[in-house]
Request: fold
Amino acid sequence: MEIHYTLDSSSPTRKSLKYREPIIIDTTCELKARAFKTGDSTKTILQKKYFESILDTTNLSEIILNNPISPEYYDSGIISLVDQQSGSIYNPNKKWLGFRNGGLDVVLDFGEEIDINYVTLSFLVDYSLKCFPPSNITLLSSENSLRYNKLYSQDISISSEQNTPARFVHQADLSSVKTRYLRIIADKLNECPKWHSEEAKPTWLLIDEIILE
Reply:
């Protein structure tokens, strides 16, 4: 059996790059891989997007949380949001930050103006743990941290059909915004919806990473 892959989002064929050793990815791309055997190929294509973030601890002057992280899901604290390390959807106690009373409300201070094209947020969805995607995501910018301008706002629909743990990734296209302060607000669903087995019980919002491009 041979594995062939692509990094440009196209479907792999036998003529695509052949997997021989670990793949080093240092830029934003979409990886697709397919296993081939003699005379046939699998019908399933493994697909995953990788993002190169311009955000890390070296270009951040300060991170300000306006809503505290819950001690139940604290991991390494606020730094986990920008350490470019993803959490496992099967282990919510590692690399995930949890919010119980209110959602995510964080301000990133870059110390100087930087260009931002995309903001990507990664959340855990696990209905058995009462973890839901955010109900809304809003992004704001500021030059002085006193007055903010809204850049983006999107309501998120909650599906009742997600029966297994999953990662909810939301990418906002800002089309090259220049800002020093970026405020990210992800509103939490306050209680479990009617179709949930624990209707009206408090929910969780778990996030593992903020990615800027």
Notes: The first strand starts at residue 2 and ends at 6. The chain has two domains: 2-50, 62-212. The CA atoms of residues 43 and 49 lie 20 Å apart. The chain is about 0% helix and 45% strand.
